[in-house]
Amino acid sequence: MADPDTTRASLYLSNNNSPCESFTMKMFGFPRKKSPGWFAISCQLDGVVVVHMTRAAEGLPVVRAIRFIEIGMTTLASVLGQVARQCQLQGARWTHLLAIGEYQMLTVDLPNVPAEERKLAVRWVVKDMLEQAVADTTLDALAIPVDPNGAGHNATMFVIAASNRFIEHRQGLFDKADIGLAAIDVPELAQRNISALLEPEGQALALLSFGADGGLVTITFRKELYLSRRMDITLLQLQQDDPEQLLAAHERIALDLQRSLDHFYRQHHAIRLSGLVLCLAGAHATRLQSHLQSSLSTSVGTLSLESIVDLSLTPELSMPDMQQRYLMVLGAALRQDEKSA
């Protein structure tokens, strides 16, 4: 059997977590242009979402602009062309947020091999977990920090994988629209960026969000991602009126959360978890918060977006439905510059 192909470039992901050595490569040679802040762009089912965010040494990150362009009967390529015409691209840095189903995120043991052999070793580790042949896959990896006071657990890492064919096709659409991508992100790391702004000093934080494709719970500590789990409960299920079905959804969420928290406690028992924050608003958030507070042994709160980013230029983001649409893209736009990582 031939060795897995090691010539493919890796995804250039959000960089708070330390990339595993020998994995830090710019995807397909994307340029790193200098410009204040980041533009983040997400291709959703009904349209394209764009956020422009800037960060300063002091004060909250500022949401400079948001934009939603409906796809309707047109093509993604045409919509990206509209984005290019409507947004000022001169010197802009763009990151593209992938959607669920466009990538895989795996958690595996860090291979116990010399650093120069790690890239090849990781490809062997994940080759049977991938949805396509490893030679046809673009990979990136992020180390999960080791607890110095832990009980000798194996060092682990997140591996993010995407089909070469998909990545090359998507990059081609952006290139055709003259949108020069500098980075690619995934929702787990976008949510990590939000959680990093909420963490109490010296304590970890769990964050739970929901969308059309399900729920996502992450746990961060010192602005690094320690745990990421998906749930199959969608936002639509949380907005239903049937009390029995709603209770069943709440109970499944509580069970999934307890399992995630138990796993985190076993792996990182020396780290104190400050609580859980729900990225929801409205009556359905209040009902879920109440249920989780009575089911879990940790405090449960809800996200106040205004407490972590400046919305003065985008007051429409104070509306719950707008926050829901833009939340993950805001997280992607919160990525740090390399020099500050």
Distance between the termini: 39 Å
> What is the tally of helical segments?
8
Low-confidence stretches: 1-10, 21-33
User: For the largest beta sheet, what order do the strands appear in spatially?
Assistant: 3-2-1-4-8
Q: Which percent range describes the beta-strand content?
A: 25-35%
Average pLDDT score: 86
Which structural class fits the helix and strand makeup?
alpha/beta
The total count of strands amounts to 13
Order of helices and strands: EEEHEEHEEHEHEEEHHEHEH
Helical residues, percent: 25-40%
Query: Measured on Cα atoms, how large is the radius of gyration?
Result: 20 Å
Q: How many strands, which pairing sense, and closed or not: the largest β-sheet?
A: 5 strands, mixed
How would the global form be characterised? globular
